[in-house]
Structures are given as C-alpha cells and as structure tokens.
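User: Could you go from structure to sequence for me? I need the amino acid at each position, not a summary. Structure tokens:
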C-alpha cells in the first residue's frame, strides 16, 4: 500500500477529508466488501489511536470517498488549517491494532525561514 500525502483544503478542515479516489481504489476499496463504510484505526505521531470512518456514496458511479467520523475531532485536536499537509503512512502496528500512522505537516517560520514541522 502506498502512502497518501495531501495538502488540506478548506472543506477538508471544516467539513470532511476528501480522499483521493485513485489512492482509495488502490489501497482501501477492496476492504469495503460491498459496504459503504469502513472504520479504520490510525495511530498519530504521539502514539494515540484515532478512529476514522471512511465512507463512499451509496448511489452513482463516482464513489467520492471521504473520512467523516473522527476527522473533525482530529482537526480540532491538532489545530489544523487549510494548507497544512496530512500524510498517511503504511505502518502496521499489531500491538496498537493499526495499519497506518497519520502525520500532520505544518509550515513554521523559524528565524525568518520557512520550515516544515511534523505534529
């Protein structure tokens, strides 16, 4: 499974995280088993497990995958804003029961220089 890296849009931050369809089809679609939702525990950089619900449309030919449940809580806890980057890294941790780690990348000014900080 490939990693997913995405710069957050206003909708991603204020409503729900829109999952790129190609990544979804290649990495998670087969796990839905005909259902329209998949609850996926994901570990953040602090080691805390976040429970994200991935869902797709029930009608139409375009799936439009999103993360709905658990996403807004994560956004608020991490202080996410449009322009921040989210990275899902394939990292199996049987002890925690997770398959992915989620990282937040924020642009930070340090001594007048822009650097990336991972949260």
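Assistant: Here is the amino acid at each position, in order:
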């Amino acid at each position: 499974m490939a990693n997913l890296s995405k710069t957050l849009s206003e909708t991603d931050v204020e409503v729900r995280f829109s999952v790129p369809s190609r990544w979804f089809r290649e990495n998670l679609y087969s796990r839905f088993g005909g259902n329209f939702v998949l609850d996926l525990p994901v570990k953040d950089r602090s080691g805390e497990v976040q429970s994200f619900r991935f869902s797709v449309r029930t009608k139409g030919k375009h799936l439009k995958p999103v993360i709905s449940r658990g996403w807004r809580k994560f956004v608020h806890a991490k202080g996410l804003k449009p322009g921040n980057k989210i990275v899902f890294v394939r990292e199996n941790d049987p002890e925690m029961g997770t398959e992915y780690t989620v990282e937040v990348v924020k642009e930070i000014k340090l001594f007048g220089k822009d650097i990336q900080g991972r949260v």
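One structural detail worth keeping in mind: The mean pLDDT is 87.
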